[in-house]
Design brief:
Layout lengths: L25 E2 L6 H11 L3 H16 L21 E2 L13 H10 L1 H8 L2 E6 L2 E7 L1 H5 L3 E4 H7 L1 H7 L10 H9 L4 E5 L9 E6 L6 E2 L2 E6 L4 E9 L7 E3 L2 E6 L4 E9 L4 E3 L2 E6 L4 E8 L4 E4 L2 E4 L5 E10 L4 E4 L2 E4 L5 E10 L4 E10 L6 E11 L5 E10 L4 E11 L2 H9 L4 H17 L4 H16 L4
Parallel strand pairs: 3-7, 6-9, 7-10, 8-11, 9-12, 10-13, 11-14, 12-15, 13-16, 14-17, 15-18, 16-19, 17-20, 18-21, 19-22, 20-23, 21-23, 22-24, 23-25, 24-26
Antiparallel strand pairs: 1-2, 3-4, 5-6
């Protein structure tokens, strides 16, 4: 007799698997050619320098090979990927003007509700373009800029030319070069000197079209003494074809500035998530990464902090949950490039059903970065005997006057703990769920409220499929 499932029967996974009709204003041909790149640039009415940048990125892409390490990427065939899907709408500043089926999707994901309750600004991207954007008037009066990248290229061209893909250049790796060639959508945020943005900004990226790629670009500049919390969410319905996500995030944190960047990536199980995120931090600045990776068939994601100013700080808090058929290769990189810099890395991973959760991290301390400190903690929890968890740290220390600590723990759910909870009248299924929630709780408490709820719901849903 099958065990009765006791874990969260009222949460419906279909909220993430909403499939709208594949309507579009324009869709590029499959594959990657110079003609496709030129067509994308024409559709966007871009300046010549951006068109040239795309074409040079394409040349770089064609000259580079796939990564020789990490997860197998054989399922990805760029000849079968559509790189640009323009939705059947223009960007709106009024939510009521967004087409009903797109609006309905975002409504179900909770985006407008979150905006009305406690967000200072919202951007919503659907396939390759931002379909909705808003920012509170009081922030505009303070000089804060929050808009989509296409608008930024036209209206803030000098700033974009100065910063765009300078921190993450196209020759960094093959999928960054691909991004440089076909990027579309994303967010541009500029916070002037001394401005404290106390209420978060949020962008949400939704991929709907089967067999397509999403290549949004996020560029955030937080000037001297300024403060910002930026929230990013991602999701997609499941298809029987491979989709690709190769976004790029560039964060510039200036002297005495502070930026918290929170994200939950909940892609479908047919998504190849090959995202690149990087921050550079000036004197006494702080970058905080809060990262949750739940979806995708394969993820390769390692947010990087370059601490280039004296006293700069980086904090990374991450969690990943790898289920059946998933390989989540995630982690973080930190470069201590100045004295008295500090970094803290705290990651947790959960694997079940044969899933693979890999922490791949790198901490480098340059020869001039004396009196720097780094603390690394990696914990992995396997829910069965067919799953896998690996910790692959790399420490490159070029200075003796530093303090470095690394701790890694890999284990399974304790039978003794399960037995104890069952003696207190708790079912085996709920006992396991309680242990997993407790394991994840230090991460959940760092997330914005609605994302913490989403993360806990996702964990419960994943467990419902593995227990009972």
């Amino acid at each position: 007799m099958a065990k009765k499932k006791t874990i969260v029967e009222d949460i419906d996974r279909r909220i993430y698997d909403i499939k709208n009709e594949d309507k579009f204003n324009y869709k590029s041909e499959k594959g990657l050619t110079k003609e496709i790149i030129l067509d994308i640039s024409r559709k966007k009415n871009e300046p010549g320098w951006m068109t040239d940048f795309r074409l040079k990125s394409l040349e770089t892409y064609e000259a580079m090979g796939l990564p020789t390490w990490g997860p197998n990427l054989d399922a990805l065939d760029m000849n079968n990927i559509v790189t640009y899907v323009k939705p059947d709408t223009e960007m709106k500043g009024d939510w009521s003007e967004v087409p009903d089926e797109i609006k309905d999707t975002f409504d179900k994901l909770g985006i407008p509700k979150a905006e009305h309750e406690y967000l200072a600004g919202v951007g919503a991207q659907y396939d390759s373009e931002v379909v909705y954007h808003s920012i509170k008037e009081e922030l505009v009066k303070q000089g804060v800029i929050y808009t989509d990248m296409e608008t930024a290229v036209r209206e803030y061209e000098d700033i974009i030319k100065q910063y765009f893909m300078k921190l993450v250049p196209p020759n960094d790796h093959k999928f960054v070069a691909l991004h440089g060639a076909v990027w579309s959508g994303g967010s541009f945020v500029y916070v002037p000197e001394g401005v404290q943005v106390d209420i978060p900004l949020q962008s949400y990226f939704r991929s709907n079209s089967p067999g397509a790629g999403q290549f949004e670009h996020t560029l955030i500049i937080v000037e001297k003494g300024a403060k910002l919390h930026f929230i990013e969410g991602c999701s997609a319905p499941k298809y029987n074809v491979t989709n690709l996500h190769a976004g790029c995030v560039e964060l510039y944190v200036k002297e005495d500035a502070s930026l918290r960047y929170s994200t939950i990536e909940n892609w479908s199980r047919n998504m190849m998530n090959l995202n690149t995120k990087r921050a550079t931090v000036d004197k006494n600045g702080t970058i905080e990464w809060i990262s949750g990776s739940f979806g995708s068939k394969v993820s390769m994601l390692y947010p990087m902090s370059i601490l280039k100013g004296e006293g700069a700080k980086s904090e990374f808090t991450g969690i990943s949950f790898a289920g059946k058929g998933q390989v989540l290769d995630t982690g973080t990189k930190v470069v201590h490039a100045a004295p008295y810099t500090s970094s803290t890395i705290n990651t947790k991973s959960i694997s079940k059903g044969g899933g693979e959760a890999i922490y791949r991290g790198s901490v480098k301390v340059t020869s001039n970065a004396h009196h720097s400190q780094s603390t690394i903690s990696c914990e992995s929890l396997m829910l069965d005997d067919i799953s896998r968890s690996d910790t692959i740290p790399a420490l490159d220390i070029m200075n003796d006057e530093v303090t470095i600590g690394h701790e890694a723990k890999i284990g399974r759910i304790s039978d003794e703990a399960i037995f104890y909870l069952m003696t207190r009248g708790i079912s085996e299924e709920e006992a396991k769920a309680m242990i997993v929630r407790g394991f994840a709780e230090p991460i959940a408490k760092e997330l914005p409220l609605e994302y913490a709820v989403e993360m806990n719901n996702l964990i419960k849903l994943e467990l419902e499929g593995s227990i009972g």
